[in-house]
Write a structure and sequence with these properties.
- The protein is of the alpha/beta class and about 300 residues long.
- It has 2 domains: about 5-145 and about 290-310, Rossmann fold, CATH 3.40.50; about 150-290, Rossmann fold (3-Layer(aba) Sandwich).
- It has 8 helices and 14 strands.
- The strands form 3 sheets. Strands 10-9-8-11-12-13-14 form a 7-stranded mixed beta sheet, sandwiched between helices. The chain has a 5-stranded parallel beta sheet with strand order 1-4-5-6-7, with helices on both faces.
- Helix 7 links the parallel strand 12 and strand 13.
- The chain is globular.
């Protein structure tokens, strides 16, 4: 493994190129496209025999196409005799289907893990999983990075006074607590209920004090924007002076852009784990590059150094 190779599928080549810039290496040469019958074809255009191969591909829109590209690229690298193959998955699609919470439903996050492992992956590098137990779905090593420090550094730079970090629900409260500790601020939690499978939530109340605060809502992803905008409205109704929001994964599906644009949120700070099309970029959205974070992790994995030391 004397040479590092970084390849990318079609989902987020901009991020892959920024990662390569950080590593000061050229992107790997690969052809990935669909035939007219919608079958995906992959050909690696350079020698990877005995090499340490990383494949950058978030499992994001179009989700199923992204997943198939990733699986076929891993298989191609395996059959080309790569020494080690590490899928770099900034966003783990299907991660919200991580348990059986209703009768006769699948655990798709586990199925995806099995598919990636069987394809030939040696280890996984990912970012802010929706549920920590997804790491246990793999029988190969998983390095999970977090964008928390990048978000914290951004808000420290704003020098806001009287800050309250607000978790959008109980599930994200641990990350919100860690962020509050790093910002030396108070912590609050929005209590909500999701009554069905229609992406609608019923926001109930705020646990904690936000009166007169600069409130920073934190979540792992913004999908349709329903949860984050409802939480922002509730926090504002409880007396917050200004309301910000931040997340790692700006999925922004369905009515998200309209909801965010017309919400009480002053600013939305997101990572670039998935591509944001021009039509989904709004004026009050700030995007932070996660390429240095991922690039440093790739360097450490390649050099057999500690990834955990990055966060100590």
């Amino acid at each position: 493994m004397d040479e590092l190779k970084v390849f990318t599928g079609n989902t987020h080549p901009d991020l892959a190129h920024l990662i390569c810039d950080y590593l000061v290496i050229p992107p790997g040469q690969v052809s990935v496209f669909q035939f007219s019958n919608e079958n995906t074809f992959v050909q690696i255009k350079e020698n990877v025999r005995g090499r340490d191969v990383f494949i950058v591909q978030p499992i994001s829109s179009p989700v199923d196409k992204s997943l198939m590209e990733l699986l076929i690229m891993v298989d191609a690298a395996k059959r080309a005799s790569a020494a080690r193959i590490t899928p770099v998955i900034p966003y783990y699609g299907y991660g919200r289907t991580d348990k059986k919470d209703q009768p006769r439903v699948p655990i798709t996050a586990r199925l995806v893990a099995d598919l990636i492992t069987v394809a030939g992956a040696s280890r996984i590098l990912t970012l802010d999983l929706h549920a920590g137990q997804i790491q246990g779905f793999f029988n190969i090593p998983v390095d999970e990075l977090t964008a928390l420090d990048s978000l914290v550094d951004y808000f420290k730079g704003k020098e806001l006074e009287n800050v309250a970090v607000v978790a959008t629900d109980i599930g994200i409260s641990k990350i919100a607590r860690d962020m509050a500790a790093k910002l030396n601020s108070r912590l609050a939690i929005v209590e909500k209920r999701r009554p069905g499978n229609d992406d609608k939530t019923e926001t109930l109340t705020v646990i904690g004090e936000v009166q007169g605060c600069h409130a920073i809502l934190v979540d792992d992803e913004i999908d349709t924007g329903g949860s984050i905008t409802a939480a922002a409205k509730t926090v504002a109704e409880h007396g917050a002076k200004e309301v910000y929001a931040c997340c790692t994964h700006p999925i922004l599906s369905g009515p998200a852009v309209e909801r965010l644009s017309t919400s009480v949120l002053k600013e939305i700070v997101v990572g670039d784990s998935v591509p944001i099309p021009d039509e989904k970029k709004i004026e009050k959205m700030t995007t932070l590059s996660l390429a240095p974070l991922i690039g440093e992790a790739i360097h450490r994995i390649h050099a057999n150094l500690s990834v955990g030391a990055m966060f100590q």
